[in-house]
């Protein structure tokens, strides 16, 4: 049988051999006591790379985002966020349950928020009927494959500063965003008071994310992490691959982006497939299929070729490259589509 190819997401990445070896040999201690040297090293490294005073290791990106809301806000606050953001669509309504906040959405242009529209959502004055605006959330890069320009982030940041509202950045793929923009990641994170970044996904660590911000913010978040059941013990075995993710895997993200462009180009040559080429900015390829390829016909053919992909929704499909997807794997994927479109 051919090797399995999995392009459902970059969340499916397996840890590298070096990561597995680092896990085996990691020096550990009880992190709730602050005794795990590998976790401390990861948090120090992450804070420095993200341009913040301190960082906190958390189990997941979802956990990191919700911990940020829980730490920044008071119960009953309002959080301004893009209507197509991960926090709105894919975090199970956790903002209402954990932080006790309500989300006030802003229509976005494929994830890019208009600063003037954000400003209109900010509650001004002491009207007893209004909740307080507690936080503005941005996302970069986005799961639609696009990257928010620095100028757009700066514009929202200036609005937030003017109204003294903090900004949190869902930076699950912020290193992908930096690779696309050709900038240091700090040039992105300078426009946020706190940032969450995933060590898994394209960076290939098996588990974990970082929440970074000021030292005072992270001190509060550490206690709230414990409240949420996120106090971990000898977790250096998971922090060790995170260090490799930041030191090594960040450097190869442009390869994933180049492979996504290659995949997009090959698919665009097939009759009936309309690739959203302008949206191929990181490691994701979105495209529309002809009606007869909706559903089981396509999925059965991919499964028979030992390829895992998420099925199309209303004829629209996404494929994601990562460190385990090379040009040969892409050629195999394209061959399945080509065979069905003959």
TrEMBL record:
GO terms for molecular function: L-allo-threonine aldolase activity. It is an enzyme of class 4 (lyase). GO terms for biological process: glycine biosynthetic process; L-threonine catabolic process. Pfam families: Beta_elim_lyase. The lineage of its organism: Bacteria, Pseudomonadati, Pseudomonadota, Betaproteobacteria, Burkholderiales. PANTHER family: L-THREONINE ALDOLASE (PTHR48097:SF9), L-THREONINE ALDOLASE-RELATED (PTHR48097). Its EC number is 4.1.2.48. Residues 6-287 form the Aromatic amino acid beta-eliminating lyase/threonine aldolase domain. The gene is ltaE. It comes from Glaciimonas soli. The modification N6-(pyridoxal phosphate)lysine is found at residue 201. Homotetramer. This is Low-specificity L-threonine aldolase. Its cofactor is pyridoxal 5'-phosphate. CDD domains: TA_like. The keyword Lyase applies. Belongs to the threonine aldolase family. Keywords: Lyase, Pyridoxal phosphate. One of its GO terms (cellular component) is cytosol.
């Amino acid at each position: 049988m051919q090797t399995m190819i999995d392009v459902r997401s970059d969340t499916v990445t397996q840890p590298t051999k070096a990561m597995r070896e680092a896990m085996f040999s990691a020096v550990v201690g009880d992190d709730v006591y602050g005794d795990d040297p590998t976790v401390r090293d990861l948090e120090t490294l992450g804070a420095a790379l993200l341009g913040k005073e301190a960082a906190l290791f958390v189990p997941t990106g979802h956990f990191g985002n919700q911990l940020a809301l829980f730490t920044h806000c008071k119960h009953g606050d309002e959080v301004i966020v893009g209507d197509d953001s991960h926090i709105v669509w894919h975090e199970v309504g956790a903002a209402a349950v954990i932080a006790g906040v309500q989300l006030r959405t802003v229509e976005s242009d494929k994830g890019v928020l208009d600063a003037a529209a954000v400003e209109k959502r900010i509650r001004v004055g002491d009207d007893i009927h209004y909740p307080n605006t507690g936080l503005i959330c941005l996302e970069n890069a986005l799961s639609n494959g696009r990257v928010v320009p620095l100028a757009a982030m700066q514009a929202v940041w200036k609005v937030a500063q003017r109204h003294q509202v903090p900004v949190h950045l869902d930076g699950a793929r912020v290193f992908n965003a930096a690779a696309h923009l050709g900038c240091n990641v700090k040039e992105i994170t300078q426009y946020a008071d706190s940032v969450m970044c995933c060590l898994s996904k394209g960076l290939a660590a098996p588990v974990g994310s970082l929440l970074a911000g000021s030292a005072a913010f992270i001190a509060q978040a550490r206690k709230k992490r414990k409240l949420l059941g996120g106090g971990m013990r000898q977790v250096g075995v998971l922090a060790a691959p995170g260090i490799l993710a930041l030191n090594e895997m960040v450097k190869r993200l442009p390869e994933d982006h180049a492979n996504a462009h290659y995949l997009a180009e090959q698919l665009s040559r097939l009759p009936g497939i309309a690739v959203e080429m302008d949206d191929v900015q990181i490691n994701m390829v979105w495209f529309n299929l002809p009606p007869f390829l909706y559903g089981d016909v396509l999925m059965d053919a991919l499964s028979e070729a030992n390829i895992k992909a998420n099925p199309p929704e209303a004829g629209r499909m996404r494929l994601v490259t990562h460190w385990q997807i090379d040009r040969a794997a892409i050629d195999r994927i394209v061959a399945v589509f080509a065979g069905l479109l003959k």
